[in-house]
User: Fold these one by one.
Assistant:
Number 1:
Amino acid sequence: MGSAVITARAAATFEPVGRSVATARAFVRDTLQGWGYNDVVDDAVVLTSELVTNAVIHAGTAADVLCLRSAEGVRVEVADHYPEREVPLQSSGIDFGSPDRENGRGLLLCAALASRWGVEYSPTRKHVWFQLDLPDRPVGIRSAGPVLPTSLLPVTDQRVRVAVVQIDSTGAISAWNEDAAHVFGHTAEQVAGKQFTDFVAWPHTPGTSTGIADALQLSRWEGSYGIRGADGRTIPVYASHLRVRDNDGDPSTVCLLVRDDERAVLQSPVRAPVSDVSSDNRTADPFEVFIGSPAPDDLDGLLQRTVERARDMLDADAAFLLLATDDETELEVRATTGLPSARQRFARVPVEAGTGRYGSARMPAVHEDLTAVPGAVPLLTDTGMRSVVTVPLKVEGRLTGSLGVAAENAGRYSNEEALRLQFAADRIALAVESARLGELERLRRGSLSFLVEASDLLAGTLDRDQTLALMAQMTVPTLATWCAVYTIADQSSDPYLSYVLHEDEDLIDGLKALLSKISPPDPVPTPGARVWSAPAEAGHRAAVSTSTRALAADAPLSMSTATRTTLATAQAVGGETVVLPLVARNRVIGMLTLGKPSDDHFRQEILELAEDLSRRAALALDNARLYSERMAISQSLQRSLLPPGLPDVPNVEIEVIYRAAGEGNEVGGDFYDVFPISDGAYGFAIGDVCGTGPEAAAVTGLARHALRLLAREGFGGPAVLERLNAAILDEGARSRFLTLLYGELWPREDGSALLKVVCAGHPLPLRLRQDGSVVPAAEPQPLLGVIDDLELYAEEVVLDPGDVLLCVTDGITERREGSRMLGDDGLAEVLSTCTGLTAGAVAARILRAVERFAAEPASDDMAILAMRIPEPQPQQS
């Protein structure tokens, strides 16, 4: 970072896998927020995302990310290990490429967003770095008024009482002077150590997020609020706050307070006429004369200060400021004072509202009595205001907004006041437009970062329910207070309420119940957000009905949980509700519904961001649907390849355990079957088709169904397998070789069982005797699906009471851990410990031993078939 002193650093390395991009973004975001660099977080995240993507995705190497902090800003370095890749120099004139390309956008973004950037090489890797400087944030600006004649000095009543209150870092009162005791009635002893907020009546002015606790943390603050006196009444005051620290470095806030009607004593700078000349013969800045110094550095603060000063300048009861949309057809309410503005913020009114010569916001307008022209100023409807003056804010002839002041009395304003207000509006129009453009740029960068992370999250899942949850969680509370997602199964189906989320979890159930009772929005494919009034109307009806019943029953509303829930739900949906279609592959697959609380409205920038998100979410939701449908079809087909169930074989215990390899597979290349052939005879088989997955499963189906059919036609074991071999070879290029153990079983009256077994290339069946010895129960013969002419033979085995026959596939015997393999000997050793166990216990012990043999999950299908001849139970005497 040049000669700047590095005050902190953080580094991390990310592997060359796709998820590393999101992890790197989170690392940079957390690091910069921890350093308090929120001003540059969004730009840093976007640039890091592009550069890490270039490293881990396009270059295919690990990415080293280093964050360095200094007093001037932050530098982020991203290094990959592929230095021979050509990188264009800043001054080479080489085209960075199109921003629409999938790769190569990192350097283009660096050039657009970073204060400085560059590329550095070392023998082993390449560094791309960028630096983001912090914006200037003045901690305090001194100002002085001009020398004035005595006649122009502020008028006060006798002695000026200036209350001096000092607040420590915890918000407690540490000093309270005599004037404070005189003005408010509390002595220093009564207030010492108590929280300052206990005495403050703070005006929660819509359009500003600064509370008393926030104001006490600022380096300087000036404005109006109230202090609760000893008699319980609130005393309006005008205050000037100054943040200081003592020799030990502990901060505190000194507050100077006067009665509100003496605000001129503290208010700075003095609002002198523009023509006044200061002592050094320099003309005062008209903007600072109107807005005050220091001017707010954020748009909302600037607009709020503007309406407050406009109200004071014309001694009005209310003031408001609206900003024009990009096409100048509508005005959006952005700041008010003296109005019920919580329900007006971000509301829109048409530019050409009203009638007559003052009907357009493009010209100054004076209304002496609004009752004579109802609706002339829609914002003031039902507010009690009678007279109003409005003036346009223009920059280079283009309408950028409208400023107005209003009074409760008729006839308060004339053209003279309109000219004064227009003069003030002309002074602030450029500053407001500059702040608005700055806000739009921050929103654009924040939106870009938001959409990058949203796309990454949505692409990371193919689960429908998880996709629905992600859609809702990304919109609440970032874009809306609550959200509901409707889905449409097909074109003939009605929309279904699939997911509901509110930023207050206690309201989710009530919101879901309300939405379930009203008809869903129409699935209109037209892009863009459209207003949906049904939730607000339904909530209002429910609230009125519930309140009426409660009052009729003479029951306090606060005592009824159901009533509180209904009223809270009505308030939650009482604001603006919009619906965005979820369109994927030219079909409406659902609707994304966003809502605000009582009488609140959406900003156009938020709606545009929500529309962009809805397009991404719709595609992700449709991909999840397609994946779920295909998985359901695949699993249904696979389940059809499994036996419907095991038959009850007299005097024989049978247990089967089956595990298919691969995610989502229920059937693979291994298969088993046990089925009745004729009276007293049963067939059993266990086999392994070459490979795994759907291709192997197709041969599995052929083999299992052919075995049953041929056996029940009366063919013996060798003939059954020879015909199956011919059927497999007839598949041609789709054929796969098959190892198969097939047997026929006849239970005997003496408690034993006769088996005739053919082992065609399959792991040999193992017989466990009662004495614990383990021996093969058959001889190996050629596998199926390789040669045409097979000559197979059956071998007879008699299982005595207590004997076990174990049949497995090679997924069991070939289980590996490094260079070790379980093998036939290892299997026989495990089986030898199963004497006296039931068939189910034998199969479970074999599987447990196989799973414990290696730490990694099995990569091959596994099947275990255990048959046991139970010992005869002693007869009861």
Number 2:
Amino acid sequence: MPGPRDSGPDPAGRPQRIAVIGGGPGGLYAAALLKRLRPDREITVWERNAPDNTFGFGVVLSDETLGGIEHADPVVYEALKAEFIRWDDIDIVHRGRTLTSGGHGFAALGRRRLLEILQQRCRALGVQLRFRTEAPPAAELAAAYDLVIAADGVHSATREAHAEHFAPRITGHRCRYIWLAADFAFDSFRFEIAETEHGVMQLHGYPFAADSSTVIVEMREEVWRAAGFDELDEQDSVDRCAKIFADALGSRPLRSNNSSWTVFRTVVNAHWSHGNTVLLGDAAHTAHFSIGSGTKLAVEDALALAACVEEQLTLADALAAYERERRPVVESTQRAAAASLRWFEELALYLDQAPRQFAFNLLTRSRRVTHDNLRLRDPGFTGAVERDFPCPFGTPPMFTPFRLRGLELRNRVVVSAMDMYSASDGLPGDFHLVHLGARALGGAGLVMTEMVCVSAEGRITPGCTGLYTPEQATAWRRVTDFVHRQAPGTAIGVQLGHSGRKGSTKLMWEGIDEPLDDGNWPLAAASPLPYRPGVNQVPHALDRAGLTDIREQFAAAAWRAARCDFDLLELHCAHGYLLSGFLSPLTNQREDAYGGSLANRLRFPLEVFDVLRGIWPPDRPMTVRISATDWAPGGTTAEESVEIARAFVAHGADAIDVSTGQVVAEERPEFGRSYQTPYADRIRNTLGVPVIAVGAISSWDDVNSLLLAGRADLCALARPHLYDPHWTLHAAAEQGYSGPGAPWPAPYRAGSRRPPTGRTDAPRPRRTLN
């Protein structure tokens, strides 16, 4: 290896001497691009394996990635183009029935051939390739080279050697999988499910050459062990997989390449660079193979890194720009991959779905493929799914009716409960009439009030509404009368709750969860634990008398709500408020009959629910809002949330409104589009009960996708309805729908078409006049 840097970066500060650790696609492509941009660079790639020694078989690349390659290096693009196998279809085999969806557009080639192309390009450009050679330690390379690119894979030694700087977080998952190959070409991307005596197993298969296919076999860890795979050697495992999936393989054998069963590990790093060393590809991040992302991400990393090194004047600026550009893309991909991974982990939940719904569910599992773009790709398949739903002809899924007890909702859109902090002494006023009335006129099937508090001490802030006085009931009756009179067909629901330890705080825009400067009232909770120690006040733990008083406060509020003519009542057991505080082990540390086991933690919320169900009219539905996870270690788990939902349904809940978090201040939510919906999905498909999905559902396409896939029955949207009170009507107009699921109020009908934004009748240019 050369000694310390002799020449150093070029006068503009760009690196001249570059070391690449790892000869996979990402490392090779980065080396080729950087050398092509500046032929005088000295670039060396270290790879401990032989040139033709690779793991896995086929590689799938998207048109987007190929476009980037074509722009950056036409030579590599043309070589890849000559090798690609292309196809459009996805076949999903569900209990012996094959369902095909077309129009997807895949391109694949063998991983070995991809490496050959990149190796040839590197040699032609003058990159030094050192195979069968361990790279020197990254710190040693960093002292001798201007730039060190660590493309040394998921088990990156570079990342581990400098873990204190990169701060990696590596998460294992619940399935085992093995990479295999078959000596024939599937004619589609194929998903096949095997329901065995040991549990569910799945095959992912796709062609990568005219006579070869990649085959991945995956199953839950407990299924893998029950089937005895943990005791089989490599060849016996391969033979066993071929036998299980004989139908998919046409009774052909499978082959391996040092294949072993492994657990997928999601790699996340807080930082991607340290000094002049940068992580690339799997060393920096991984995303589950079920969305075909590993090589794609690595190649795109290489494109971005080379461009940033060329564009920026200093290496530090280049590495910072590379991470700024790539991190949002990678995080989005990792969210999609996590959704896909979890879907396959929970595959057994969906097997009883109707075949086409199951196929639609699988295709939209990552939330990147949606109802609308699937309809563009394959309108025949999507139309069949809609008919099975069933959607009347010309009716989007979101505009189909849904019944809860005696209440029929004309569509599946809910205006989520949103605290407005605009009441005076708990009294809703003109603001609430206009706010809720506008959203009722906006077309939603159900409009929910904010959390209406059952006592003055149960308010979150001085601006929260209540239902603990006759005057408040009169004011709420004004709202319900308006909705029923002016927006017939729209239901209005009331959400009852008590703030618990999260009360006596400022209005949201004055300091969310901050205690009042003065005028604080005492707080009550399951246990004497402040929301934030040293900031929020310590609540007193409720004794038997206190529990009885609060239960009676809920009962009185429900009695008033019924007389206000609300159509639905929801009990708020989420977000760390009083009843949620009983449910979570992080906030309930009682040692009596109301603490400890989940059954005990459920006791008081169920007592309250039972009282309300006895008061609430029997033909009107009741729902319960829960936090399905606390997003914190030791808190409520997804499995416990199913049991919580099961208990409320057994006591008469008609639907579960599934939210998450806001229970403890130290939570770490996994934010992203529709990020809470998997918890609703799990409850619905485990228990077979109606659920309301919430959580960053922002488009009508999301709503249609969730409903058709069977992940939710109703979708609650909050911020979109703040942005646009007529969100539902506009969603209907944008989809060309004008049926009974979204009727425009008579005074608004003239506005039911989007107004023109400019001239569209300008004279067209004529070539003959040029």
Number 3:
Amino acid sequence: MTALTLSTSSAATARADAVVVGVAKGAKGAVPATGAEAVDEAFGGKLAAVLETLGATGAEGEVTKLPAADGLKAPVVLAVGLGAAPAKGETYDNETLRRAAGSAARALNGTKKAAFALPLEDAEAAAAVAEGALFGAYAFTAFRSDAAPAKGKKGAKGGNGSSAPLAEVTLVGGKPRDKEFKAATERAQVLAAEIHRARDLINTPSNALDPKAFAAEAQAAAKEFGLKVEVLDEKALKKGGFGGLLGVGQGSDTPPRLVRIAHTHAKATKTLALVGKGITYDSGGISLKPAGHNETMKCDMAGAAAVFATVVAAARLGLEVNVTGWLALAENMPSGNATRPGDVLTMYSGKTVEVLNTDAEGRLVLADALTRASEEEPDAIVDVATLTGAMMLALGSRTFGIMANDDAFRTTIHEIAEEVGEQAWPMPMPAELRKGMDSPVADIANMGERMGGGLVAGLFLKEFVGEGITWAHLDIAGPAFHESAPYGYTHKGGTGSSVRTLLRLAERTASGDLG
């Protein structure tokens, strides 16, 4: 994990391998942002002119490296674009700072230490820069033979042969003795560590992370951070009547698991239940996915990874709220034992489900977990899942959908997502779509109308939430796994989508501030 420190040093005197400054698009060209004054002075007030000579415009995410001028301790200056300069009296929004810091951190792979002299107007801005830098300083190297340095060599290689992540970040102007700054950056370190935990799990190939191995990860974290954990194996699931989990997992040689992992606080008055879809590999089952759709299906447990990481983060931060995570873990494979289209499963709730498509398996494992979570009567339940391709068609690859049985709760989660810099959008649950899931042989079918498929999935899940319990569903199918070029603090592969939103929801639940 990249180290983070706060420093009162100026950008000119900071001892580092590189100093990072912001540059914005002004009315007449590039302009240095707040925090870059000492660096601009070292360039004789001509930093913007030098950057423009090198092609810099100040566009958001643009990165320009140049040799440092005399008078700077760091040998390299890295200027990162912040987009349009704010109007007089206004400041950069936190997500702009977060992405800029992430872009800089990615560009500094292989660097030991960098001083970030980006605009730090307050503790919130410091947290945003810290988060962005730490999110950007990431590489998944567990399965690379070149990850460890060769004997006698310095440094290590990161993913795809690139250098290891930036090792140390110093926030210039970070006020290390200020309680708000200190608390904000300490939280950022915990948040980044847990997002990296989620990313690592999502990026781990399915042959190394099956339901049993995932459950073991939860047990290890529980021991380390003082969490309560319970793992239901296939025998316990059968005894308990968890037909959804068993039905999805029966085609695999690796049986399913249901993990309950909980952070409790002696002063807590509220309980938040988080339910995560944990399909460690999704072939589609008998309803086999077509060629080209299988290669990234190790990421179908991203919801469970987000829930797991959030519970650990809540414990590490000592939040005065009880947060219970339910990880519904299974591997969806085709075999002679697999559930067939047309089969009927009896769920943990006692309801029967006609399985019309075995590739609509996430809702089946979530249904069992939602019913079980409801038995504990939490104040609210939020489930998180890479659930439907339909949600990606509706919202694209960077935005997750939010559905709920309570409009105010849905609005609150949307506001929280915007606050923490995650793209999300509230979605409806039209009552007329429920009829499409009527079955002639069971209580409900796992498929309905094709149009509005993401909404149909939400309506299915709603059937398994306990009476009177506030519930929301986050479909993170789009942003959970990034397949295009990296940007900002987002790398290729697992992203840790929704962890920031879930953690802030837990914090606001603890404080009683849910709007």
Number 4:
Amino acid sequence: MVDTNTKSISLNSLGIKNATIRYQLTSNELHQETLTKKQGVESSLGAIAVNTGEFTGRSPMDRFIVKDAITKDEVWWSKINLPFEEDKFDKLYDKVVDYLSEKEIFVRDSYACADENYKLNIRVINEYPWSNMFAYNMFLRPTEAELENFSPEWTVINAPGFMANADVDGTRQHNFAILNFSKKIALIGGTGYTGEIKKGIFSALNFILPMYKNTLPMHCSANVGAAGDTAIFFGLSGTGKTTLSTDPNRSLIGDDEHGWTAENTVFNFEGGCYAKVINLSQEQEPEIFAAIKKGAILENVIMDENGIVDFADTSITQNTRVSYPIYHIDNIQQPSIGKNPKNIFFLTADAFGVLPPISKLTPAQAAYHFISGYTAKVAGTEAGVTEPVPSFSACFGAPFMPLHPTRYAEMLSKKMKEAGVNVWLINTGWSGGKYGVGRRMPLKYTRAMITAVLNGDLGDYRYEDYHIHSVFGVAQPRTCPGVPTELLSPRATWNNDEAYYETAFKLSNAFRHNFKQFEEFANEEIRRGGPQRYAH
């Protein structure tokens, strides 16, 4: 990285006046600044631990897009994509830059998109040093030569200490994350949760790439095998996206955000990983555990007086996290680009316990399940509540998708057909009964199923080798190397057909109910990809 202050920059053009600008500090310097300002504590693993304050996760109801000439006819305005008035943005922006003026602030130039043809230069302006360290970890790091004539295209302004006045400023409450596509600004205030920084740029790319670059943006992880075959893993939080793509036998492209180009390459948007650490153990996830060292940032974890982290302690939040630069993982693809996508995995943690642990999808089913983006939430800590709740997030990333979900699904369908990709639905959730009755599918078996696919052991669909699920219509393999055969049939693991089908129909009805919002936009092929049977 470039040394501190080898280049002086001015932020006057942004309206930030007389600030003390700490430009392009190294990771070590930002680590030390955080300790000096008593904004974090060093853990026994060497990583710095911070508390993000009031917000320990994204606040989707406080994410807005400025409604203007660029966005008004293109964005899918909804509960997810909330409109913000242009003049309200300008007034709020002026307040935020006035707030940052005359302060010490941390500025970093970086970029997104590992493929040179799609590169997006970003300037990140932070109130706190650890937020700037997060930007160092998560975005791609320019060389000294690249910094010399660096011209930012997008600007992220991040002021956690600034509180909006909802009645005056047009926000819902005091925190906000607002995208302005005309001014190319992500404006974030009132929240210290760092995920808003990376997801702001991800959301921008989810508009820019399909609209202007004929590239499908994906909320997924990806890795590549020795033969050059790329695998893509879609999944919502808690389904195993980071865990399953971090494979000692394959090179990691990235763990969360990628683009799939017209040239049939897959590239990482980011320069780091942002992994959940709830119940993390060295035995189960050695690569991620080893990445937690100096240069990493732990968020909202509990430590003892010796700095030893209790990864099982969720007293602050279940969404405990670690951010680290991708080079903390030994086995990575450099640059973060893969070619020749061969297999796509849709990961779901089905707490109803009715979906097969692995099944093969037709193109129509793949599009349907992509639009649905199903996983399930478990009741968790509430006493006496054991009913799982279905959770649907279109394209496995609805909060970050400004366009209508069917636009992404149709792009995916086209790319899958052109590339001849196999698509698999992987249930990392429950087996032998729903949450509270059955048990979570052991990670070693899920890994064995994915390895079997990547090795070509499950082959093409043939009736002798696959059983068609009577409710969901998906093809479940009858055998799989390294996996007990009885686990492959969810119905067989229940030992109670009546209870199994009652629960399966309940979930299929939830799928159909959720899909009603998309039916008028989805073509006939996609509509036929859903559950085959359902309860009246």
